[in-house]
Amino acid sequence: MINPGFDRRSFLKYGALSALAALTPTAPAFASVRERSLAFYNLHTDENLKTVYWADGDYIPESLAAINHHMRDYRNGEVHQIHPRLLDALCELRIRMDTTARIELISGYRSVATNAMLHDHTDGVAQHSLHVEGMAADIRIPERSLSLLRKTAISMKAGGVGYYPASQFVHLDVGRIRTW
């Protein structure tokens, strides 16, 4: 029996909200996180970085600089600003995957020269890659399966997600939403 103060429209609205809640990941809402942190291991430089990059409603410049350096083009040492939306997507990915494990970084920022060289010699490297803009990262999380990483990244709708199981990484960018 429906409560007399609970009309059909309210019943349908709450039913839809309940169905949506059932489909929503159980990870804490990213927006309610008080501090945003990341932990990386750069496979090419053998460097680790663990930092809180956002707190009290603001990005922390020193932490952003450390991340920019960590995600640099390891081939030539060129450092570029990593887009904060990418950092937020990586942070949200860890939260949704319920892990504090470090993200293994295969590729972060790429200089124009490095990207051109990779494009000429490697399949699957875009000529105008978002890596050049500091808006993409190729990653894996050792404690989580690559297929789960891909599925979780796609569910976030933060940008592009590429799946490279033979090379053991997932590409995540904050460009337009697409998958490959």
Give a structural overview:
This protein is α+β, with helices and mostly antiparallel strands. The protein has a single domain (34-179), classed as Muramoyl-pentapeptide Carboxypeptidase, domain 2 (2-Layer Sandwich), CATH 3.30.1380.10. It contains five helices and eight strands; from the N terminus they run αβββααβαβαβββ. Strand 2 (47-55) and strand 3 form a beta hairpin. Helix 3 (84-96) crosses helix 5 (146-156).
**What's the helix-strand series?**
HEEEHHEHEHEEE
Rough outline: globular
Measured between the Cα atoms of the first and last residue, the distance is: 49 Å
From the helix content, strand content and strand pairing, which structural class follows?
alpha+beta
Strand content is: 15-25%
Which oligomeric state applies? single chain
How would you summarize the topology of this molecule?
Layout: H1 8-23, E1 35-42, E2 47-55, E3 58-59, H2 61-70, H3 84-96, E4 103-107, H4 112-121, E5 136-140, H5 146-156, E6 160-164, E7 169-173, E8 178-179
Parallel strand pairs: 1-4, 6-8
Antiparallel strand pairs: 1-2, 2-3, 4-5, 5-7, 6-7
Helix pairs in contact: 3-5
Keywords:
180 residues, globular, 33% helix, single chain
In short:
Helix content is 33%, strand content 23%. The chain contains five helices and eight strands; from the N terminus they run αβββααβαβαβββ.
